[in-house]
Amino acid sequence: MGRHRKQPATNIRRGSVIALTGLVPAGLVAVGASAAEVNAGESANLTPPQHNPEKQAQPAADELMRPAVHPGAPIVETQTPGQDHSDLPAGPAGMPGIAYQAYQNAERVLAQEEPNCHMSWSELAGIGQIESHHAYGKTDSKGVAQDPIYGPALDGSLSGNNVVPTAGDALDGGSGGYARALGPMQFLPDTYRKYAGDGDGDGISDPQNLFDASLTAGKYLCSGGENMNDLSQQSKAIMRYNNSMAYVANVMAWEVAYRTGVAPKSSDLPRI
Length: 272
What we know:
Helix content: 25-40%
Protein backbone atom coordinates (compact mmCIF):
# COMPACT_ATOMS: atom_id res chain seq x y z
CA MET A 1 0.00 0.00 0.00
CA GLY A 2 1.16 3.59 0.43
CA ARG A 3 3.49 2.59 3.24
CA HIS A 4 5.27 -0.72 3.07
CA ARG A 5 7.44 -0.50 6.13
CA LYS A 6 7.81 -3.79 7.91
CA GLN A 7 6.75 -3.55 11.54
CA PRO A 8 8.22 -5.69 14.33
CA ALA A 9 5.83 -8.32 15.59
CA THR A 10 3.84 -7.07 18.56
CA ASN A 11 3.37 -9.49 21.42
CA ILE A 12 -0.24 -9.17 22.50
CA ARG A 13 -2.15 -11.74 24.47
CA ARG A 14 -5.40 -13.13 23.11
CA GLY A 15 -8.25 -11.40 24.89
CA SER A 16 -6.43 -8.07 25.13
CA VAL A 17 -8.12 -6.46 22.15
CA ILE A 18 -10.07 -3.89 24.10
CA ALA A 19 -7.02 -3.22 26.26
CA LEU A 20 -5.36 -1.76 23.17
CA THR A 21 -7.90 1.03 23.16
CA GLY A 22 -6.30 2.56 26.21
CA LEU A 23 -3.31 3.61 24.11
CA VAL A 24 -5.07 6.65 22.64
CA PRO A 25 -8.07 8.89 23.43
CA ALA A 26 -11.55 7.58 22.82
CA GLY A 27 -13.26 8.32 19.53
CA LEU A 28 -13.84 6.79 16.12
CA VAL A 29 -11.82 6.22 13.01
CA ALA A 30 -12.09 8.27 9.82
CA VAL A 31 -13.88 7.08 6.74
CA GLY A 32 -12.99 8.36 3.30
CA ALA A 33 -9.26 8.68 3.94
CA SER A 34 -6.85 6.19 2.46
CA ALA A 35 -6.67 4.06 5.56
CA ALA A 36 -5.39 1.14 3.51
CA GLU A 37 -2.49 3.31 2.41
CA VAL A 38 -1.84 6.18 4.84
CA ASN A 39 -3.24 7.75 7.97
CA ALA A 40 -5.59 10.62 7.22
CA GLY A 41 -6.05 12.00 10.71
CA GLU A 42 -9.79 12.53 10.25
CA SER A 43 -12.55 11.22 12.50
CA ALA A 44 -16.26 10.50 12.24
CA ASN A 45 -18.82 9.76 14.92
CA LEU A 46 -20.83 6.58 14.54
CA THR A 47 -23.87 5.23 16.30
CA PRO A 48 -23.03 1.58 17.00
CA PRO A 49 -25.61 -0.65 15.30
CA GLN A 50 -27.77 -2.94 17.38
CA HIS A 51 -27.70 -6.67 16.79
CA ASN A 52 -31.02 -8.36 16.08
CA PRO A 53 -30.53 -12.14 15.70
CA GLU A 54 -33.98 -12.50 14.12
CA LYS A 55 -32.98 -10.26 11.23
CA GLN A 56 -29.51 -11.69 10.71
CA ALA A 57 -28.85 -12.66 7.09
CA GLN A 58 -28.66 -16.39 6.52
CA PRO A 59 -27.53 -16.83 2.91
CA ALA A 60 -27.54 -20.28 1.39
CA ALA A 61 -24.19 -22.06 1.36
CA ASP A 62 -23.95 -22.07 -2.43
CA GLU A 63 -24.35 -18.29 -2.46
CA LEU A 64 -21.36 -17.79 -0.18
CA MET A 65 -18.72 -19.34 -2.41
CA ARG A 66 -18.06 -17.27 -5.49
CA PRO A 67 -14.51 -18.14 -6.59
CA ALA A 68 -13.22 -16.79 -9.88
CA VAL A 69 -14.20 -19.07 -12.73
CA HIS A 70 -12.12 -17.36 -15.40
CA PRO A 71 -8.51 -18.43 -15.99
CA GLY A 72 -5.74 -15.94 -15.31
CA ALA A 73 -5.90 -12.59 -13.55
CA PRO A 74 -9.23 -10.72 -13.60
CA ILE A 75 -9.74 -7.54 -15.57
CA VAL A 76 -9.57 -4.61 -13.16
CA GLU A 77 -12.20 -1.98 -13.89
CA THR A 78 -15.12 -0.20 -12.29
CA GLN A 79 -18.65 -1.11 -13.31
CA THR A 80 -21.87 0.87 -13.41
CA PRO A 81 -24.07 -0.11 -10.47
CA GLY A 82 -27.51 -1.49 -11.14
CA GLN A 83 -30.69 0.41 -10.40
CA ASP A 84 -31.79 -2.17 -7.85
CA HIS A 85 -30.82 -2.08 -4.19
CA SER A 86 -29.64 -4.85 -1.93
CA ASP A 87 -32.43 -5.65 0.49
CA LEU A 88 -30.98 -8.65 2.32
CA PRO A 89 -31.72 -8.83 6.05
CA ALA A 90 -29.08 -7.39 8.33
CA GLY A 91 -26.10 -9.43 9.45
CA PRO A 92 -24.36 -9.49 12.86
CA ALA A 93 -24.48 -6.21 14.80
CA GLY A 94 -26.62 -4.71 12.07
CA MET A 95 -24.15 -4.84 9.19
CA PRO A 96 -25.75 -4.84 5.71
CA GLY A 97 -26.60 -8.37 4.60
CA ILE A 98 -24.77 -7.98 1.26
CA ALA A 99 -21.59 -7.03 3.13
CA TYR A 100 -21.99 -10.05 5.40
CA GLN A 101 -22.19 -12.28 2.33
CA ALA A 102 -19.13 -10.61 0.77
CA TYR A 103 -16.95 -11.08 3.84
CA GLN A 104 -18.02 -14.69 4.30
CA ASN A 105 -17.40 -15.35 0.62
CA ALA A 106 -13.88 -13.91 0.88
CA GLU A 107 -13.17 -16.12 3.90
CA ARG A 108 -14.21 -19.24 1.97
CA VAL A 109 -12.18 -18.36 -1.12
CA LEU A 110 -9.10 -17.52 0.98
CA ALA A 111 -9.46 -20.79 2.91
CA GLN A 112 -8.72 -22.50 -0.41
CA GLU A 113 -6.20 -20.04 -1.85
CA GLU A 114 -4.39 -19.11 1.39
CA PRO A 115 -5.12 -21.97 3.82
CA ASN A 116 -2.29 -21.04 6.20
CA CYS A 117 -3.57 -17.49 6.60
CA HIS A 118 -6.80 -18.43 8.41
CA MET A 119 -8.47 -15.18 7.43
CA SER A 120 -11.85 -14.67 9.09
CA TRP A 121 -14.84 -12.86 7.66
CA SER A 122 -15.11 -10.89 10.91
CA GLU A 123 -11.64 -9.38 10.49
CA LEU A 124 -12.56 -8.22 6.99
CA ALA A 125 -15.81 -6.87 8.42
CA GLY A 126 -13.83 -4.86 10.97
CA ILE A 127 -11.86 -3.22 8.18
CA GLY A 128 -14.99 -2.69 6.09
CA GLN A 129 -16.71 -0.96 9.00
CA ILE A 130 -13.85 1.45 9.54
CA GLU A 131 -13.09 2.19 5.91
CA SER A 132 -16.61 2.85 4.61
CA HIS A 133 -19.24 1.54 7.04
CA HIS A 134 -19.63 -1.36 4.57
CA ALA A 135 -20.08 0.87 1.51
CA TYR A 136 -22.39 3.04 3.63
CA GLY A 137 -24.99 0.31 3.25
CA LYS A 138 -25.81 1.51 -0.26
CA THR A 139 -25.08 -1.09 -2.93
CA ASP A 140 -26.96 -2.81 -5.70
CA SER A 141 -27.89 -6.48 -5.41
CA LYS A 142 -24.43 -7.49 -6.73
CA GLY A 143 -22.60 -5.51 -4.06
CA VAL A 144 -21.53 -2.56 -6.23
CA ALA A 145 -21.57 0.79 -4.42
CA GLN A 146 -24.47 2.91 -5.69
CA ASP A 147 -22.25 6.00 -5.40
CA PRO A 148 -18.53 5.44 -6.10
CA ILE A 149 -16.49 5.74 -2.91
CA TYR A 150 -13.33 7.85 -3.06
CA GLY A 151 -10.98 9.09 -0.39
CA PRO A 152 -9.47 12.59 -0.38
CA ALA A 153 -6.74 13.47 -2.85
CA LEU A 154 -3.38 12.61 -1.29
CA ASP A 155 -1.87 16.05 -1.84
CA GLY A 156 -0.57 16.58 1.70
CA SER A 157 -3.36 18.96 2.67
CA LEU A 158 -4.66 16.65 5.40
CA SER A 159 -2.58 15.99 8.49
CA GLY A 160 -0.94 12.56 8.37
CA ASN A 161 -1.47 12.02 4.64
CA ASN A 162 1.37 11.15 2.32
CA VAL A 163 1.74 13.05 -0.93
CA VAL A 164 1.08 10.60 -3.76
CA PRO A 165 1.24 12.19 -7.22
CA THR A 166 -0.41 10.41 -10.13
CA ALA A 167 -0.69 10.92 -13.85
CA GLY A 168 -4.34 10.01 -13.53
CA ASP A 169 -6.06 6.67 -13.19
CA ALA A 170 -9.38 5.53 -14.57
CA LEU A 171 -10.15 3.67 -11.35
CA ASP A 172 -10.23 6.73 -9.12
CA GLY A 173 -12.12 8.91 -11.55
CA GLY A 174 -9.31 11.42 -11.96
CA SER A 175 -8.08 13.28 -8.91
CA GLY A 176 -6.32 16.43 -10.08
CA GLY A 177 -2.82 15.01 -10.22
CA TYR A 178 -2.89 13.21 -6.86
CA ALA A 179 -3.91 9.64 -6.05
CA ARG A 180 -6.82 8.82 -3.81
CA ALA A 181 -8.10 5.63 -2.27
CA LEU A 182 -11.19 4.03 -3.71
CA GLY A 183 -13.92 1.56 -2.96
CA PRO A 184 -15.38 0.25 0.29
CA MET A 185 -12.01 -1.14 1.38
CA GLN A 186 -10.06 2.00 0.37
CA PHE A 187 -7.18 0.89 -1.87
CA LEU A 188 -4.90 3.04 -3.97
CA PRO A 189 -5.30 2.01 -7.62
CA ASP A 190 -1.82 0.52 -8.06
CA THR A 191 -2.11 -1.57 -4.92
CA TYR A 192 -5.57 -2.76 -5.87
CA ARG A 193 -4.31 -3.94 -9.25
CA LYS A 194 -1.48 -5.87 -7.60
CA TYR A 195 -3.76 -7.89 -5.31
CA ALA A 196 -7.01 -7.73 -7.29
CA GLY A 197 -9.41 -10.52 -6.40
CA ASP A 198 -12.47 -11.64 -8.34
CA GLY A 199 -14.82 -12.26 -5.46
CA ASP A 200 -17.96 -12.86 -7.52
CA GLY A 201 -16.35 -14.94 -10.25
CA ASP A 202 -17.33 -12.76 -13.21
CA GLY A 203 -13.80 -12.27 -14.55
CA ILE A 204 -13.73 -8.63 -13.42
CA SER A 205 -12.30 -7.16 -10.24
CA ASP A 206 -14.09 -3.93 -9.36
CA PRO A 207 -12.78 -2.01 -6.33
CA GLN A 208 -16.28 -0.56 -5.88
CA ASN A 209 -17.75 -4.07 -5.54
CA LEU A 210 -17.94 -5.45 -1.98
CA PHE A 211 -17.22 -9.02 -3.11
CA ASP A 212 -14.14 -8.08 -5.13
CA ALA A 213 -12.84 -5.50 -2.65
CA SER A 214 -13.25 -7.84 0.33
CA LEU A 215 -11.34 -10.63 -1.36
CA THR A 216 -8.64 -8.17 -2.43
CA ALA A 217 -8.29 -6.92 1.14
CA GLY A 218 -7.94 -10.49 2.34
CA LYS A 219 -5.31 -11.26 -0.29
CA TYR A 220 -3.34 -8.20 0.77
CA LEU A 221 -3.56 -9.04 4.48
CA CYS A 222 -2.48 -12.63 3.78
CA SER A 223 0.40 -11.58 1.52
CA GLY A 224 2.93 -11.34 4.35
CA GLY A 225 2.59 -14.96 5.38
CA GLU A 226 1.01 -14.25 8.77
CA ASN A 227 -1.38 -16.61 10.55
CA MET A 228 -4.48 -14.66 11.60
CA ASN A 229 -5.12 -17.11 14.42
CA ASP A 230 -2.08 -15.59 16.15
CA LEU A 231 -3.02 -12.22 17.61
CA SER A 232 0.44 -10.68 17.23
CA GLN A 233 0.66 -11.80 13.58
CA GLN A 234 -2.87 -10.53 12.95
CA SER A 235 -1.88 -7.15 14.38
CA LYS A 236 1.22 -7.09 12.18
CA ALA A 237 -0.87 -7.72 9.06
CA ILE A 238 -3.37 -4.99 9.95
CA MET A 239 -0.47 -2.59 10.57
CA ARG A 240 0.51 -3.06 6.93
CA TYR A 241 -2.98 -1.94 6.00
CA ASN A 242 -2.64 1.15 8.18
CA ASN A 243 0.50 1.85 10.21
CA SER A 244 -1.35 2.76 13.39
CA MET A 245 -1.91 0.82 16.61
CA ALA A 246 -5.12 2.82 17.12
CA TYR A 247 -6.32 1.55 13.75
CA VAL A 248 -5.44 -2.02 14.76
CA ALA A 249 -7.40 -1.60 18.00
CA ASN A 250 -10.44 -0.32 16.08
CA VAL A 251 -10.38 -3.20 13.60
CA MET A 252 -9.96 -5.80 16.31
CA ALA A 253 -12.70 -4.28 18.48
CA TRP A 254 -15.14 -4.45 15.56
CA GLU A 255 -13.93 -7.94 14.67
CA VAL A 256 -14.92 -9.10 18.15
CA ALA A 257 -18.21 -7.20 17.88
CA TYR A 258 -19.20 -8.88 14.64
CA ARG A 259 -18.11 -12.28 15.86
CA THR A 260 -20.11 -11.97 19.07
CA GLY A 261 -22.99 -9.81 17.79
CA VAL A 262 -22.43 -7.11 20.42
CA ALA A 263 -21.45 -3.70 19.04
CA PRO A 264 -18.68 -1.82 20.87
CA LYS A 265 -19.37 1.42 22.69
CA SER A 266 -17.93 4.53 21.08
CA SER A 267 -16.01 5.17 24.29
CA ASP A 268 -14.16 1.87 23.78
CA LEU A 269 -12.86 2.83 20.33
CA PRO A 270 -9.65 4.84 20.02
CA ARG A 271 -9.38 7.94 17.89
CA ILE A 272 -7.13 7.68 14.86
